[in-house]
Structures are given as C-alpha cells and as structure tokens.
Amino acid sequence: MGILTERERDILRWLREGLAVKEIGRRLGVSDTSVSRSISNIRVKAGDLAEDVEFLAGIGFLRVKGGRLEFVTRDRDPKALAGRSRSHRR
Predict the structure, then answer these.
(1) Where do the DSSP E strands lie in the chain?
(2) What's the farthest any 2 CA atoms get from each other in the chain?
(3) pTM of the full predicted structure?
(4) Which residues contact 69 (CB under 8 A, 6 or more apart)?
(5) Which residues lie below 8 Å from residue 32, measured CB to CB, with a gap of 6+?
(6) Which long-range contacts link 60-65 to residues 24+ away (Cβ below 8 Å)?
(7) Rounded Cα distance, 26 and 87, in Å
(8) How far apart are CA 11 and CA 38, in angstroms?
(9) End-to-end CA gap in the chain
(10) Which domains does the chain have, with CATH numbers?
(11) pLDDT in tens, 27-37
(12) Which residues are 62's β-sheet partners?
C-alpha cells in the first residue's frame, strides 16, 4: 500500500509476524499508545481506499477480478470513459 508511511508498513509487517503492540513499541522506541494510534491510522486509510475503489468500480473506471484491480481503460485516464456508453464497457 503506497498510502502508508514506512513506520505503518513496519507495524503491519510485525503484526503479521505476531508481535504484540508492546513489543512493536519497544522496537520503535515509542509508547504503546503511539503504536495503537498508528494502527488506527492504518484502518482509516484502508477504509478510505476501499471507498475509493468502490467509487471507481461504480463509475466503470476499474473492476475487481480474481482479487486484483483491473483498469478498464488502457491509459488509466478516467476521462477516457466519458465518451463510452455503458453498453460498450468491458
């Protein structure tokens, strides 16, 4: 996820590895509260991203296929959809 900071990516990696918030805080040299705040920020960013994907899929700019995002237009330019009718979309 390009929207996450380096610290947030580290925290996610350590959470996947099974580390507790307290241990992550020790590794980073910050408080448990700081780690928890970062986790909350990650959740907000993930929610925002999900809403954006849903919106872009709803207007036909991209679709989710096999768990992957596919852009409908080759140039990934949403303006390219303006001239296409719904019946011509893939």
Answers:
(1) 62-65, 68-71
(2) 56
(3) 0.67
(4) 53, 62, 63
(5) 21, 22, 25
(6) 60/84, 60/86, 60/89
(7) 56
(8) 8
(9) 27
(10) 1-52 (1.10.10.10), 59-90 (no CATH)
(11) 999 999 999 99
(12) 71
